[in-house]
Amino acid sequence: xxxxxxxxxxxxxxxxxxxxxxxxxxxxxxxxxxxxxxxxxxxxxxxxxxxxxxxxxxxxxxxxxxxxxxxxxxxxxxxxxxxxxxxxxxxxxxxxxxxxxxxxxxxxxxxxxxxxxxxxxxxxxxxxxxxxxxxxxxxxxxxxxxxxxxxxxxxxxxxxxxxxxxxxxxxxxxxxxxxxxxxxxxxxxxxxxxxxxxxxxxxxxxxxxxxxxxxxxxxxxxxxxxxxxxxxxxxxxxxxxxxxxxxxxxxxxxxxxxxxxxxxxxxxxxxxxxxxxxxxxxxxxxxxxxxxxxxxxxxxxxxxxxxxxxxxxxxxxxxxxxxxxxxxxxxxxxxxxxxxxxxxxxxxxxxxxxxxxxxxxxxxxxxxxxxxxxxxxxxxxxxxxxxxxxxxxxxxx
Length: 397
Description:
Blueprint (H helix, E strand, L loop, with lengths): L2 H22 L1 H8 L3 H4 L1 H20 L5 H20 L4 H28 L6 H30 L3 H20 L11 H6 L4 H21 L2 H8 L4 H29 L1 H18 L7 H29 L4 H29 L5 H20 L10 H11 L1
Helix pairs in contact: 1-4, 1-6, 1-7, 1-8, 4-6, 4-15, 5-6, 5-8, 6-7, 7-12, 10-14, 10-15, 10-16, 12-13, 12-14, 13-14, 13-16, 14-15
């Protein structure tokens, strides 16, 4: 494996850390800025919303820019966004910094994936892409718990400085080791969205959106949930996040194994159904810390197990537009993250964080209905004309 792939994985690690870290320090961010926890939750929502919107948009707008140059400039702006977060005097400035970090972070992840597949031999492409996404999952396992410790020791601003330092290291690595890479032809956003006209594809993407909505309705507010339900201190909360991250990594492997063993369709239905059940059970499991930890591990594993099965399903369903569907699925998941964060905040304001899991379970139930609808559609409905798509791409570029 080309070592440059691991350098790109470092970038995805940093972007993943920037996205996920706020969920763990919501309470100290809220206290530091004098806002409610639900208001602080908007920092998660806006990041995911901007990430979902700007990922395909920026990729299209920068289609003709040399990749290394684009990568370095994007990293520099991402660095500036996190420095702005570090020095933010109020919530509004921090909110703006999240927009900057999310927009540039979305482009960095897409660039990391496309560059990783470019700089390795064809037989290693899938493995290289897997390494990039391991960077994101690694941020959940290692980065978030470390960021929580730093945040509780040195204040809510310190994790953003930590991210900025890692970004500088990434900039130096990319500058020294990555060669110039010419851009590839990019399919227009209009053509990408046109693939959603097929019900089979549309409801597959809705499955991802609703699944993540249900997940983030609770996960975005896991810290206040643990504080309220189990009365855990900051040290134990960091431990729980670490366990959650380890379980998530195993979950990704489990999802891939299930998709290979059972097929993607059966795997998706099983994962979504059990995930829905787990969310409804979670509040009842708080009667025991050990019982809750076990149920939480299952919740974490299933939250990441869906991704390989869902991606495999999209590739099987529309192999001729597989790349487009992967991009759209990334946007769908981040729309779900944004929606879940907003809905979770509303539940906290109107009721209690104790109900977040149940409300999340309802959205996952809707995801299950969408998955069943998509999977039972006629396979022929999802086919696009590969020749027509290729012709339009050539005309565009």
